[in-house]
Amino acid sequence: MPEVIEDSRPDEADHEPSQESVPELAFTDAASATRWMNGLPLSNVGMAYEALLGQLHALTHSEIGPRDRATIAEVAREPVAHLHATSAKPRRPIRRSRCGRRCGSSTRCACGRCSKAVPSSRA
Question: Which of 10, 54, 109, 116 is the most buried (most CB within 10 A)?
Answer without folding.
Answer: 109
